Amino acid sequence: MSQTLEAQLVAWRRELHQYPELSNEEFATTERIQNWLRSADIRQLPFDLKTGVIAEIGQGEPLIALRADIDALPIDEVAPVEFRSKNPGVMHACGHDIHTSVILGAALLLKARESSLPGRVRLLFQPAEERFGGAKTLIGAGALEGVSAIFGAHNAPELPVGTFATRGGPFYANVDRFDIEIEGKGAHAARPQEGVDSIVIASQIVTALQTLVSRNYSPLESVVVSVTRIEGGNTWNVLPQKVVLEGTVRTHNDAIRAEIPARIEKLISSIAEGFGGRAQLNWHGGPPAVVNTERWAEFSKQVAARAGYEVRHAEVQMGGEDFAFYLHNTPGTFVSIGSASEFGLHHPGFNPDDSLIYPAAQFFSQLAEAALQEIN
Ligand SMILES: [Zn+2]
Ligand SMILES: [Zn+2]
Fold first, then answer.
1. 368 C-alpha vs ligand 2 centroid, how far in Å?
2. What is the CATH number for 160?
3. Is the pLDDT of residue 86 over 70?
4. Closest ligand to residue 152's CA
5. Are residues 33 and 131 in the same domain?
6. Rounded mean pLDDT, 327-335
């Protein structure tokens, strides 16, 4: 049985991998998950979703949830695998195909024990994690109502297979995005005195933004400000009217997160005005920090150790994960499971070791059952 299930889960993962779909366009993926759940006689709940699936196993209370994300990225795959993406320009480069197979595996294992489960396990196959919208969609649809605890995982390419890591408290960061529009005055490159040079203003702003963290916050705080795009000008002999900068801010401290936009605004507008131009900040708030419930982080470590994992204490990450939205409403924990890929997440050569799937499925089925017993 276990040999067959193990092979089945890897086959499902490879099929998902060949047909990746972008955020909110996971139609064929949704259909596959629905069919696989149906073939295992697992009941699906009639939530009104465009993409994604919610299913449930067991009866009565309490209710806990396991979450997998199902979307892929706009990347052209170069990984040397037979099951390479057949959808040009789209790739499961974050391993959400693996997460989906792991939770499907946990579902099948729990289904086999359904009559002895002391409550219900809800399975969330969530769309659009990469755009940080899917978790909100599911919460808005009511998927977390009555849920006492929620668990999810991300594969960790930097960890060997068989390794498990998590931490109580802050784990992943608050993720915010910004763009800055810098308006100067266009001029002939040979007559700069007749214009206001938006490229010079942009350069000063990029440099000044580097001091925002280093001169305002304790070196012991984790804050990152990165400018990731500069766009302006289209030829060699014209000073452009406008430059646009784009970037991201990562924080763990909510008070710092809240004040950073005002600090950026003050800095950029005074610099731009000093040069006779204007700068405008557009702030796009992203998902909050993933803050694991201490009790459930510790609990999941104990279950992982019993399941045979080498358990580590995870470092704080500056990356983001929309699992954070669930943890704002519901206790639970997010964990890392080693996937040993030479190339990291979002890399076109990302090639995780899918032998992690079956042990991870066993871990999640054991975690779900133990959590139900713990709550009871
Ligand atoms: Zn990702
Ligand atoms: Zn991911």
1. 22
2. 3.40.630.10
3. yes
4. 2
5. yes
6. 95
Could you tell me the distance, in angstroms and rounded to a whole number, from the CA of residue 267 to the centre of ligand 2? 34
Does residue 188 sit in the same domain as residue 298? no
Q: Quick: pLDDT tens for 228-282.
A: 999 999 999 999 999 999 999 999 988 999 999 999 999 999 999 999 999 999 9
Task: Determine the structural domain holding residue 236 and report its residue range.
Answer: 174-285
Phi, psi of 85 (to 5 degrees): -50, 135
Question: How far does the centroid of ligand 1 lie from the alpha carbon of residue 240, in Å?
Answer: 35
What is the distance in A from the centroid of ligand 2 to the CA of 119?
A: 29
- Say which ligand is closest to the CA of 339: 2
Q: Which residues are within 8 A (CB) of 326 and not within 5 positions of it... i.e. 6 or more apart?
A: 65, 67, 135, 139, 144, 150, 152, 332
Residue 290 CA to ligand 1 center (angstroms) comes to 15
Q: Can you give the pTM of this predicted structure? A: 0.88
Residues 339 and 208 occupy one common structural domain? no
Q: What are phi and psi of 79, to 5 degrees?
A: -60, 135
Residue 152 C-alpha to ligand 2 middle, in angstroms?
11
For residue 153, the model assigns a pLDDT of 98
User: Does 179 lie in the same domain as 267?
Assistant: yes
Q: Can you list the positions of beta strands (E) in the chain?
A: 43-44, 53-58, 63-69, 120-126, 149-156, 163-166, 169-170, 174-183, 187-188, 223-232, 238-239, 242-251, 278-285, 291-292, 310-313, 332-338
Is the model's pLDDT at 2 over the cut of 80?
Answer: no
- Same domain as 300, residue 274: no
Model pLDDT for residues 305-314, shown as the tens digit of each residue: 999 999 999 9
Question: In the chain, what percentage of residues exceed pLDDT 70?
Answer: 99
Whether 193 and 222 share a structural domain: yes
- Distance from Cα 71 to the centre of ligand 2, integer Å: 9
Ligand that lies nearest to the alpha carbon of residue 126, given by its number in the listed order? 2
The Å distance, Cα 176 to ligand 2 centre, comes to 17
- Point out the domain boundary residue: 285, 315, 340: 285
* Spacing, Cα 279 to ligand 1 middle (Å): 31
Q: Ligand 1 center to residue 347 CA distance, Å?
A: 10
Tell me how many domains the chain contains.
2
Give the end of a domain, one of 258, 285, 312. Answer: 285
